[in-house]
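Why do we care about 3D structure at all? Because function follows from shape, and shape follows, mostly, from sequence. That is the central idea of this module. The next example makes it concrete: a single protein chain, its amino acid sequence, and then its structure expressed as tokens.
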Amino acid sequence: MSKPFLTALMAALATALMACAGPALSATESDQRAYLGTLQARAHTLGLADQRMWRTLLHDVVHPLTRHDRSLADDPDFFLHPQGATRPADELDATLAAFFDPAETHALGQSAACRFPARFNWLNEQLGFDPAHLPRPDCPRYQQWRSGVQAERITLIFPSAYLNSPASMYGHTFLRLDPPAPAGGETPLLSYAISYAAAGNEAEGLAFALKGLTGLYAGEFSNSPYYLRIRDYNDLENRDIWEYELKLTPPEIARLIDHTWELGPTRFDYYFFDENCAYHLLSLLDAARPELNLSAQFTWWALPLDTVKAVTQTQGLLGAVRYRPSNATEMRHRAGLLGPVGSAQAKALSTGQLSPAALASQEPDTARRALILETAERLVTYDGSQGRLGDEAQVQRARMALLMARAQLPRGTPVTVPTPPDEPSTGHGTARIDVMLGQRNGQGLVELAARPAYHDLLDQPEGFQRGAAIQFFRMGLSKTAQGHLQLERLTPVEITSLSPHEPLLAARSWRVEMSLQRRAQARADGLRPLGAQVRGGPGYAWDLAGERVLAYAFLDNHLAWERELDRQAWQAGSGLAAGALVDLGPGWRVQAEAFARAYLGGQPGARGASLASRWRLNRDWNLQGRCEVSLRQGEPVNQTCLMGLQRYW
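And the structure:
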């Protein structure tokens, strides 16, 4: 067989095989496939799928129980491989392949490269894309958004706790993108804010809280002007704001913004305790600088205050710290400057009971009169934002009358609210464990207690809102000399808000507690049954002795269920509880309280008192003593006294 014949035969066979395989690839497509294979091979060689940056961009974490990799993103469109949520290496290969496809089939009508700019830029940095084979994509939608989000600095914002909102009882965090300062100086109110929150309605009340606890809400990233956040937090909810400037480089800021774009249309299941506003903001900072690894510090819960501490305690990350007082804080400061008489005059001006002309006859000092008029105008604005002064037109007429009267007086010194000596990140740890020894009704007792969050009235006050206490899932175990270790008390939620009476603002105090706890007195068989109770009601509080004493009184409603009760399983009653929180010296705080209640249905009444003292040893340790006595009609007196140590972390 001749050589020409063999050559012709091989050519014919090749032609037949190509015909069976389908249409031939163009030279460009063939080159792209070859180049894609080269990129994927290099990515495998470099181990890019195992690098922290890639895991951060995928929000990939190791499950604390199964130890398996999985992404916290719950949106299938966030992944380019069917198993990308659990297989980061396959997701990397699929991402590189998708960059060669210009089809606009992804979220917001984009190509993959435009949908994931942070992924594209990082992989380009690692692999050095050849523009001849993989040109930089044209992304008009992204470019339009990016041109409006200019940032020279990133600032972490922490509005303080807001007890009237289930989603904000621990505070909140978000990021502010500060653009280059114009010639006239900084204008932070015009900056953009990046936040993550549950897409739910807080008006649902208990249903909102339950859905947030169980991940039934979608969490969403959003950006909005900072002045709108100031209106919501500073003005409407009266929350002080702390601003923590972060030392990030321009490339790090660019990565953070690019990853924010990737997360915009992405769904995450929202959980109040771990995958919340605070946790996912840390993942954005990790995307900016992966070696921070901030989000890895939180596994089971992530409180906003704890995440602020993680940021501020990271060496080299924290810049300037600034304080922005709320309207309520400013009003309290002004009331202190004016005293009772001046505050009453400002209040009367704001309600129209006193005219500016009449004020001139009552207060001859122009500087003081100017301060009273300024305070009255701010009080009108505050009450108007709360809907207490009619429609917007009425509010503006009242404001203009006060401003015109103020304009006729000499220019004075602006009122500046002093910055508190302790910012929130300097406070105690939010988790605590107690070890207490003592006696109950004459028997020796050991009590162990732990809580994951957050703060009670006797805790060290530095960095926390005065008079506010929030405890979740506090559990206590007890053991007597003759008994075994048992659950003494479980408190899913306990909240106290002591807002002292103020001359300018309507202060509201209230508290609520839901718990399981054992009966104080044992039955004939020596057992102490476990029952459920809800306790709380509205109240009133007063500052005494120059704010060293915070006295209070509450309507003490009580609803309890215990299967072993003598007459019936349910009991419902009401009464009064009164007490005082006293600061005896630096690090030494005492709380005394007494109560008396009557019950429906012929159930016996109850009364009692308690005295607790806590002495701070240092930031992490307390020494505490507590004594309680209670009595129900027809039963013996119950007495408990304990002393021990408390440790924060």
